[in-house]
């Protein structure tokens, strides 16, 4: 009989960092990986074109055999940083953790369990917001927690099959990148510039096309806690992020077609969001705090995202918005 511990895949964890302003967060993220009940093979800290941060982290972990500090070998941005980590990884599975998040102790263990099925090519988890102000803003609807990089109301519960995982709390078999290529550059985050996204959605759809039998899962027991700074608790950021999501979705739809590119979004827009508006209005009628604000924020978020999608579609057709899918070259497996 095989030993599950021996047959479980080795997991490399990639954490991308770009600013010294998150120094304590980065250290906490690494510490949470090192405290896992199922140890990671290695933690790869990829620094995005910031030489002082690269040198400081290099000194911090120079005697740590389980942590490697790398410079982003591609263009500036989160996608290229992740691709650098993938190329240097030695594990059969590569997991991604945001630099301002901490993982619960069984995070990697939950991922490893799912990969017992050889058809599983990606597993994501649940991301819980940690509000800088100490509590969720009364106006901020749970349906839009993706705005701050967290799991949102409307996602399925348990361990379930999905179209795509969410990038800040996700893992992939290393062979998934061999089949489909890496994260597309030109879609995702680039430091503090416009908060674009959807790079993991585009990758997952591309993966499904390259490997039609691939299974992608979310297991909501694989939990991380993601810090939300005060600046992202404001409506100004909410509006900017939803607009940027529309721009990104237009790129994805142009790449993979609106059928696949907007498949999950249609259910979200036609079922989840109307129910959220109804809850907000009901709470307003019952004089509960924030009800009207939440209903209004949902409507505003939909309209702003739709506006971004229209603008993004025009720009994409004109070639003003482009992205590239790079191959992931092996750099560290052994």
- Rounded to an integer in angstroms, the radius of gyration calculated over CA atoms is 19 Å
**Proportion of beta-strand residues:** 15-25%
Characterize the largest beta sheet: strand count, sense, and whether it forms a barrel: 9 strands, mixed
SSE topology string: HEHEHEHEEHEEEHHEHHHH
Overall strand count: 9
Termini separation: 27 Å
Helical stretch tally: 11
**Percent range of helical residues:** 40-55%
Please state the structural category. Answer: alpha/beta
Question: What ranges have pLDDT less than 50 throughout 5 or more consecutive residues?
Answer: none
Averaged pLDDT, please?
89
Shape: globular
Write the layout of secondary structure elements.
Layout: H1 4-7, E1 11-17, H2 23-34, E2 42-47, H3 51-60, E3 67-71, H4 78-88, E4 93-97, E5 101-103, H5 107-114, E6 120-131, E7 159-161, E8 169-173, H6 174-180, H7 199-210, E9 215-228, H8 235-256, H9 258-261, H10 263-285, H11 291-318
Parallel strand pairs: 1-2, 1-4, 2-3, 6-9
Antiparallel strand pairs: 4-8, 5-9, 6-8, 7-9
Question: What can you tell me about this protein's structure?
Answer:
The protein is α/β, with parallel strands linked by helices. It has helices spanning 4-7, 23-34, 51-60, 78-88, 107-114, 174-180, 199-210, 235-256, 258-261, 263-285, 291-318; strands at residues 11-17, 42-47, 67-71, 93-97, 101-103, 120-131, 159-161, 169-173, 215-228. The chain has eleven helices and nine strands. Strands 1, 2, 3, 4, 5, 6, 7, 8 and 9 form a nine-stranded mixed β-sheet that branches. β2, α3 and β3 (67-71) form a beta-alpha-beta unit. α10 (263-285) packs antiparallel against α11. The radius of gyration is 19 Å and the shape is globular.
